[in-house]
Amino acid sequence: MFSRLLISRRLIGWLALALLVLTASPLVAVDYSDWQYNAGKGYYYRKCSFPAGGHQYVVYYKSRPQWVYWYNPGAQVFWSACPTINHPTWGNDIRNGKDLFLIAEVKGRNVEDCKFPMPTGANFVPGKAKDKDGGDVALGCPPPDLP
Q1: What's the pLDDT band for 28 if we cut at 50, 70, 90?
Q2: Residue 137's CB: how many other CB atoms inside 10 A?
Q3: 128 phi and psi, to 5 degrees?
């Protein structure tokens, strides 16, 4: 009797875990385009395409070689920065694919209008966004290559 009760509790535990895994909203992967150059504005950008058709842009300024910036065209704001391989503190982490997003305290239409917190290891978060269908999208660490 005791062993049947123990097996039943284990089975219930496994079923609950399976149900949690199956109903959780998984984050899905994204695709990055090659770098393009906007000669009129003097920056490089690459499109980050989401599975359901949404997208954002990663923007790189040669005058700011330690960071790339995330631009949301729907909201028309820069909202996050990620260190590049050129960053003296986090460059190696980026080379190794670490997901380091520094969320702007003040978002802006231009990078100069944004206010970012002082970067410390404690205030980096994993990158995520919403796709066109409202689903969560894991942005992951942008590819480490630069133009």
Answers
A1: low
A2: 24
A3: -150, 155
